[in-house]
Amino acid sequence: MSKTVKIKPSHESQGEFVIISVDQFNPSEHELIEGESLPINESEVTNDALVPVEQFDELANKLVISEEQLLTAKEELMAFKNDVPAMKARIAELQGDDTLVGATNENQNPSTENTGDAQASGSKSTAKNNKQSKDQE
User: Which stretches of sequence are listed as region Disordered (predicted)?
Assistant: First the structure.
């Protein structure tokens, strides 16, 4: 005897449900009645398709650890973004500059430290001298 399932009727005259053979069931044409399920043929399920609980738990733990590491990395990034001196020091480090930002080398005269202000004032004086030379001509 073949196995049967109850499906929803396609017409009112069929009553509350229709019983058909499992072999005749077509998911695109039929809808199972609530609480009804297709029987599973045990030979269709292979042991390779099943994952041991221990392996699943191990993967779940690794996922939790990865999520914690991601959260920590995000927090460190936000803290770094808000720490301008640390960012400048890292930029100097990446550019191969041995001196820290704001620090002076013992051979370097603090008054001539290359801060950008000295360059700007030097550029201004050069431009001023060039203008005076043109005015004299």
Answer: 96-137
Task: Say yes or no: 32 and 66 in one domain.
Answer: no
Per-residue pLDDT of 70-104, as tens digits, reads: 999 999 999 989 999 989 998 999 998 655 555 54
Pair (22, 62) in one structural domain: no
If phi > 0 it is left, if psi is from -120 to 50 it is alpha, else beta; for residue 38 that is beta
DSSP E strand stretches across the chain: 4-7, 18-21
| Residue range of the domain that includes 9 | 1-37
Return the amino acid letter for 26.
Answer: N
Label residue 7 exposed, middle or buried (CB < 10 Å: 0-12, 13-18, 19+): buried
> What gap in Å lies between CA 85 and CA 100, rounded to an integer?
10
Residue 42 lies in a domain: no
